[in-house]
Amino acid sequence: MSIRPTDALERGATPWLFAAALATTLPHFEHQPLWLSALTTVLFAWGAWLWWRDERLPGRWPLALLVAIACGGVLFEFRTLFGRDAGVAMLVVFMAMKLLELRSRRDATVVVMLGYFLLLTHYFYSQSIPTGLWLLAAMTLVTAALVRLHGGAASTPAATLRYAGLLMLQAVPFMLVLFLLFPRVSGPLWGLPQDAHNGRTGLSDQMAPGNIANLALSGEIAFRARFTQPPPARDRLYWRGPVLEMFDGKIWRQQAARPRPPQIEALSPPVAYESTLEPHQQRWLLALDAPGTLPVDLALENTLTATARLPINQRQRFSLTAILDYRFNPDEEQAVLKRNLTLPPEINPRSRALAESWRREESSPERLVQKALTLFSGSGFSYTLQPPVLGENPVDDFLFVTQRGFCEHYSSAFVALMRAAGVPARVVTGYQGGETNPVDGFVVVRQSDAHAWAEVWLAGRGWVRVDPTAAVSPTRVESGIAAAMPDGEPLPALIQVRANWLRTLQFRWEAINNAWNQYVLGYNPQRQREFLSRLGLNDPDWRNMAAALGIICGLMLLAVTGWALYRRPHLDPAARLWQKALRRLARRQVNCAPWETPLALVRRLEDERPDLAPAVMEVADAYLQARYGDQPDQLKILRAAVARLP
Amino acid sequence: MLGVKHSPFSTNPKQLDPILAAAGGIILGKDREIRQSLACLLAGGHLLIEDLPGVGKTTLAHALANLLGLSFSRIQFTSDLLPADITGVSVYERQSGEFRFLPGPVFAQMVLADEINRATPKTQSALLEAMEERQVTIEGETRPLPQPFFVIATQNPSHQIGTFPLPESQLDRFLMRIELGYPDRGAERALLAAGGQRASADRLTPLIAASDLPRLQAEAAATHAAGPLIDYVQALVEASRRDAAFQHGLSPRAGLALLAAARAWAWLDGRDMVLPDDVQEMLPLVARHRLRSTQGTGMARSEDIAALIRAVSIP
Description:
The complex is a heterodimer.
Chain A: H1 14-25, H2 34-53, H3 60-78, H4 83-98, H5 105-121, H6 129-151, H7 157-181, E1 206-207, H8 211-215, E2 221-227, E3 238-247, E4 252-254, E5 264-266, E6 271-277, E7 287-288, E8 298-300, E9 306-308, E10 316-322, E11 326-328, H9 334-339, H10 349-361, H11 365-377, E12 382-383, H12 394-402, E13 404-405, H13 407-420, E14 425-432, E15 435-436, E16 443-446, E17 450-458, E18 462-466, H14 468-472, H15 474-479, H16 481-484, H17 493-496, H18 501-521, H19 525-534, H20 542-567, H21 573-587, H22 598-608, H23 613-628, H24 635-644
Chain B: H1 17-26, H2 31-42, E1 46-50, H3 57-68, E2 72-76, H4 83-87, E3 88-93, E4 98-103, E5 110-114, H5 121-133, E6 135-138, E7 141-144, E8 150-155, H6 168-171, E9 174-178, H7 185-194, H8 198-203, H9 213-221, H10 227-242, H11 252-268, H12 276-287, H13 302-311
Parallel strand pairs in B: 1-8, 1-9, 2-5, 5-8
Antiparallel strand pairs in B: 3-4, 6-7
Helix pairs in contact in B: 1-2, 1-3, 2-11, 9-11, 10-11, 11-12, 12-13
């Protein structure tokens, strides 16, 4: 394949293309199979080496072989050549291989266009702020490569980058308009980004000793809440997850949902808040106790757990209310009460015997509750993230042998004691507390705030919350887990850090992330409608929106064009006529380099094209007089001379 | 060169053509270089001629001085030449009991500084300061040099043994630097036939009065340079600063020098406006000794200057 010299790729442009290719493929290495990243790296290195040594690029057959190997590998790995993962893998390999055939400017253009497309594919995998920033930089680099292709060797790297940056800046208004006005579809266009589905941690629908302690080791954010008024005190923030009623002696499980709605009597005015849930692959919403009125698409179970219709596998926002003082199901069904008195027979005999001895001493359930709490607050019991392993009778082992446990141990033992003493009781899991981010005012609840407490049913008062952990370690409820844990406990570093610059930094970063989630990623069709109605566009359909988009973009383009035309140096009329003459000469196979003076052209033509020389001489003389002389009225002569040009 | 095949706009009388013709009769086959030297003097600048010994540098200077009616003095630079040998000394006169100043050879309208790079830098700088200030300060007394004042310095190629190459800052004082080169075949034949030319140069009589020279210089400096032409000069200067072939670009003073040279060149051709051709013609003479090549240690190569011209489009 021979390439015309004008089409050949200039050597100095290649590093730009490599940089652009690297920037657009690098983040894919994180989730691609290792062999693919290795192959890509080898191809990159090969291409760079060939460029460095100025060696011949591989021919057609080696490339064809490479394509076959890559396609085969992708087919073997993904069982298809299409779809998100396989398609992206193919694009990455093709990008790397294109660098091995950078011969002409056309090849370079392909690399640039492929680069732009690859930028888009990263959003299939992540939509976080670092990804966005990386892609912004990568896009500037790809644009710089394009600028360099057209700018030629004379442009310095700094000037190339500056120009690309300027282009990016000019694109900002268009980006904003497109972001705000482009018709939104509910649900993503090409499938969800991967990080929408990877809710790694969270509460499960059962509780065994150690479950929540494990969860408490994670500093990840479970959800954020923003209250319209100042948030309630920390020890009142009980966020309810699944309520566990079935006990087999070791593991607490949820009872299937019952249709009967709960009865709640509000004793204080409701508190409104907005909760943004991180995906956790479960249906419960972790609403603040007790949930007030719910939006229509949410349901309230009989156990007061608010649930969504589908598992929450995407970051989602809910507007909720909470009633902090409430009376809940004072006339509970007998079947429910009976179930909440059930204990597995023949397990934990010592604790059962202890509870029965209490029952003989006291008849009032309130007193019995108090007795159990007194037991926990007494000496011997301690609160720890690293409890000893429990044996066949976990409650007995805990109460009488180890006496060291986390919230699930205390709640489990407390409920078992209550049931044995004849007081209906159950375990409630969820989160307790949360931390107000001073930067944006959101209450941030982390996995480390996961908690388990108990609920007892008292005649006339309904289900009443009892937190046995508070008896052991009051600071857990008042100040949070980090303050409650003695030194040396393996808490996540993030939540340990207290009152220093790192903490502030973390707050800021989380506030920024939260703003990104709330306002950028959370800009859904509903938000768009709200925004547009604030602009006075009530309930626009997608046609109106597309029209508005077209009109605004068109107006902006017009403004930019007008500005550019205004800024353009006004070409001198004489120069314009000379350009016209040169265009006419070009049609007759006579070209004039930009640095060639008119007189030099004339002298050249006297040798090369004596037929044209006199006419051109006339034009050149008139042009030089008009442009470089100081006599007026030369334009007319020039115009006439140009007109006489054959 | 303009005016060979097609020379438009040469409307003004070419007042110095007789001088060019007379000098051309002495230094054979070097019409272009004579014209360049004259343009340099017209632009009020000093001239540096660099070439091998024996190609006619001294003869050219001598002929120009005689033709222009300028007082002439020649300083042969040697390694033991002292600054006072150039500027002059005060001697004590017993009769009057006073010091009397004996002016040095620099007190002439045209000074030929022959083989300037054979002298030590100290002596070189004495002359170069005189060139810049157009006056000499000796023993606290400032004495103006005659008007007009020109220096034509000749220089052997600096790779010859026993030379002190002029530093860049000193080179900048010369408006132009030209090379004479060997005469062509016909000119050399005529030279051999006629014998040495130095004597005939001495016999030349002035064709204009030295007092006319300032007027001619003023006329040349008034040659019209249109906006686009000044743009072109500026573009060339800017391009020289970006060009990777040079260690640094042209200074603003170099830009002024280029424009002045182009004006003089245009005026010599009898034109009342400067054309881009004039700028292209003058650029190598004005720029080469002011730029340093990034290839090696010497001054810019003429190929690089040609490439610079090709990199800048004419506005």
